[in-house]
Structure formats: structure tokens, C-alpha cells
Amino acid sequence: MQIVNKIGVIGMGSMGKLIARYASRWGQVEYFDNQVIESDHASPVELRQVCLADIVFLVVPLGAYTKLLPQIAKHLNPEAIFVDVASVKLEPERLIKQHLGRHQHILLSHPLFGPESASASLENHKFIVTLATGRAQQLVDFLDKNLNLDVIRKTALEHDQAMAQVQGLTFFLSRALDVYGLNGQSTGLETPSFSWVKGLAELDKHHSQELLETIQVYNPEAVKARQQLLDILIKLNQDYANQHGSDRLS
């Protein structure tokens, strides 16, 4: 990959901070956020300036894309590699093509890791790529060969279909179990399998509302998967009621 002087990060949430920390090894990092975020790895600047960097990472909730992309399009360096890291891919691809369709260097990706799992190293973590145009392919090669990320290529549809189960159903069950109250005090009677289920409920506390909204609302495949699961649960409940008699369930 060519020499990188500046890297821009739009959005300094937990993933933005992680990207800034690793990217600071390659060049000077500047970031834009609605508020000033303390960081040892990046300096706050206006959106216009961030867009002039050699590599620009968009790390915001998908709901903010419609507002931000038209502004980014006005200022984006024509030679910049523009990188999207959203957890769904069909909707970002549509929006980015709509607003940045003429830009030559675009990487649509989904890092299957976060600040906790990749705090020490990026090595062998999965990095899904659904689109890499122009010089963006050089960045993909760099991440593969120099950072030892496990680069996996999928279409946007293939990605969203897989993530509907991998993340959509997992986080849906996690939220349901947490709301149910399975994360409460120990009864002292836990089996190993019940402890595993309680761990799934605990998972709900480790993801932001914005991430969950992106996964559950903006992935149409996740909507289908949730409905299929609900249909199965309702049928199973009805089957048990029919088998044992409603009087035994009262």
C-alpha cells in the first residue's frame, strides 16, 4: 500500500477508538464527532478536514448515513480510500452508491471483532469484505498480509443472510433473555447448560443500542429470521399445550 500521511475517522465510539488506535501506527489520525472525545491516538477536526485524509473510515450508526453521506460527498478527497464498517451491508451499499457513486476507491467491510476481542491484537480476527474498488484493494491486501486479518469475501446479500443468524438471532435471544430477567441472582441450582444460557443473557449488556438497531432494523434478512423463530416458538408452545392438555398448564 502507498504511504499514508493521514487517516480520518468519522465517529469516535468504541469501534472508532479502536480503529484510531491501530491506524495511528500507519499515519496521523484525525477524527470528527459531534462531541470532543479524549483520545491519545487522534485529534479532533471538522468534517471537511477529516474528508481530506488518505483513508476515511465511516464509523457511525447506520441511521446517521443519510445525513452524513451528502456532506462527505462534498468534501471527500477524490483519491481517498473510503471505508464503511457497518454490521449490515445491503443498506450501506445502497446508500453509498447513491451518494458516493462516482468515488473510485470504496471498501465496504464488516470487522467481526470489537474493542474487547481485539484489544491486544487483530491477528486471525475475521474481516468481511463485500466491495473493494480501485485502491481499496491495496488496503485489503495490507490488512490481510501485514495485520494477518482473516479476510473473507462475500456479497452484501450473502453477508446479511449469514449475519441474520450469527448476530440477528443471537442478539435477539440475548435481549429477550435479559428482559425476561434471566440475568438475576443465582438460585444455587444452576446446571452447566443453564449457566450457558445466563451467559447469553449477559451478552445483551455488552452491545450498544445503536449496534443492535443496525443489526435488527436495517437487515431485512434478520427481520425474516426473527419471524421464523417466533413462529417456531409459538408452534412449540401450542404443541405442548395440545399434547398435555390445557388443564395441566393452568
Describe this structure in words.
The structure is a single chain. With 250 residues, the chain is α/β, with parallel strands linked by helices. It contains ten helices and eight strands. An eight-stranded mixed beta sheet has the order 3-2-1-4-5-6-7-8. It starts with 5 loop residues before the first strand and ends with a helix.
Order of helices and strands: EHEEHEHEHEEHEHHHHH
Strand order of the largest sheet: 3-2-1-4-5-6-7-8
Helical amount among residues, as a percent range?
A: 40-55%
Overall form: elongated
Distance between the termini: 68 Å
What fraction strand?
Answer: 5-15%
Largest sheet: 8 strands, mixed
Poorly predicted ranges: none
Query: What is the mean predicted local confidence, pLDDT?
Result: 92
| Extended strand count | 8
Q: Tally the helices.
A: 10
User: What is the radius of gyration computed over CA atoms, rounded to a whole number of angstroms?
Assistant: 21 Å
Class per helix and strand makeup: alpha/beta
What is shown here, in short?
The chain is an alpha/beta fold and 250 residues long. The protein has helices at 14-23, 47-50, 65-75, 90-100, 136-145, 156-180, 192-203, 209-217, 220-244, 246-249, and strands at 6-10, 28-32, 43-44, 55-58, 81-84, 106-111, 126-132, 150-153.
